[in-house]
Write a structure and sequence with these properties.
alpha+beta; P63C domain-containing protein; 5-stranded mixed barrel; two-stranded antiparallel ribbon; 14 helices; Phage_Mx8_p63_C; 2 domains
Length: 338
Amino acid sequence: MTDPSGRAKGGVARASKMTPAQRKESAQKAAAARWATPEPKRAISGSADRPLMIGDAAIECYVLDDGTRVITQGAMLTALGRSRRVNTKPGDDITLPPILRAQALRPFISDELIEDARPISFVTPSGVRANGYRADVLPQVCEAWLSARSADTLLKSQHPIATAAEIIVRGLARVGIIALIDEATGYQDVRARDALAKILEAYVADELQPWVKTFDVDFYKEMFRLRELRFDPSSLKKPSYFGHLTNDVVYRRVAPGVFDEIKAERAKDEKKRKAKFHQQLTTEVGHPKLREHIASVTTIMKLSDDWTDFKAKLDRVHPIIDPNQPQLWEDEILESAH
């Protein structure tokens, strides 16, 4: 091993003059500084309602705005059969991330894992603050528990954790091979196209439907209020830009790809171009879902002070849907179609 130099050499010299208690306090401060997150990241999608299932473990996971895949701290602990509450016990090394503090794990965790397992503070799409870990930390933690079991260093009370870790590792192997095959064969793109086709088939009708009253007076009354305009319930006249606003708050958010498909159909068919957007939706799924969405948007409007406040709430409750992830909607579409 090479001798330390520069700042590292100075650090060693300072450490040699400290008492054990001082060195521990210094390490704790350094760990706190490493793990501090001044500004939490934001999750752009998540699985709070549809957790990732591995064996019997339901794992709540998210994708952050920088592309990082994270698993919530509670989900990571629960998956391993541990309490969601992080309790510090005598002898725990609190300079380590909470999921690595079991003494039995210490010989089996690397410096790289300690670095990778730094807690990540983030905000879920619904606006809730949460703590989590990079998703690729889970299999590494499981391997550490299995190594500790193989070395026969676990307490009797810790064996169920190792059993849970084994189930997760096996489950990840099955999920992993499917994902790798999907990627290698290009099926992940085929699946996305198939899912989008199902959505469009369920939502967008081939033929125009009869006109029916779809947007209630309250919808436009609230839109006029939020845009600081005088509303006349006896007049059907609206500012021309209201059409663009309606497309943004309604049609772009009702289901993946629906707005683009409606626009494409209108470009090809003059008859559809002269009709209302909602006349291109199916009576079984598309129009009922549109009505549900409008009712929700109207409620959000009523709870908002101005247009900026409304858009912030709307983006949280009904974000513009990523058309590249239609497979996330497959179950809902199949349920609606039946």
